[in-house]
Amino acid sequence: QPVGESYAAEAWAHGVRVEPEALSRSFREAYGAQSRRFPNYGRGQGLSSQQWWVDVVKQTFRLSGVHEDRVLTLIAENLYRDFCSARNWEVLPGASETLSQCCQRGFRMGVVSNFDNRLENILSQCNLRHHFEFILTSEDVGFAKPDGRIFEKALRLSGVPPELAAHVGDDYTRDYKAARAVGMHGFLLRAAGQGTEPEVPPEHILPMLSHLLALIEK
């Protein structure tokens, strides 16, 4: 569900009423400001990713008119834990089946993500972790996509040369363009109606993840 709805539900559990739409707007502002001030979860500036996120949540509520610090700390810490469980995430249709088929074909698979170190546990909670040999987060590596170094680390871990590797993502700059810049194949996951950049050939577009195998096998 949208971030604003998750945040509003947690606030309501503490007796605080805030409109989800206001929280969604405030979250975008707070997240953007925190990302600019402390890139990559503050890894190089002495912050833990938990503190980084707690600050984002508290600032989100402050921008929405809630200023009681004690209750904000409780809300923020609960949300940090909640987003490590499966209930706040949705597995795309066909994802598990596609990943299983990739494993059966002997593909070496890993995750390259601009996420914090909760990701491995989230994937386990969603019953997806076992498909992957490694999980690379930007917090762990110290570089965030589109920095080519995170892709190069993935290639070293997999032992696969870039021309035999493919990256699937849903962001043109951070995923598709960045992977291709280091010599990998790139596929852009875009649902029907989302639109795409004119520079991406139609054969590189995945309307659903289940289309991946047919494209790779070409």
TrEMBL record:
InterPro entries: HAD-like_hydrolase_domain (IPR051828), HAD-like_sf (IPR036412), HAD-SF_hydro_IA (IPR006439), HAD-SF_hydro_IA_REG-2-like (IPR011949), HAD-SF_hydro_IA_REG-2-like_cap (IPR044924), HAD_sf (IPR023214). It holds the Pfam family Hydrolase. GO terms for cellular component: nucleus. It comes from the Eukaryota. CDD domains: HAD_dREG-2_like (cd16415). Keywords: Hydrolase. One of its GO terms (molecular function) is hydrolase activity. Belongs to the HAD-like hydrolase superfamily. This is Haloacid dehalogenase-like hydrolase domain-containing protein 3.
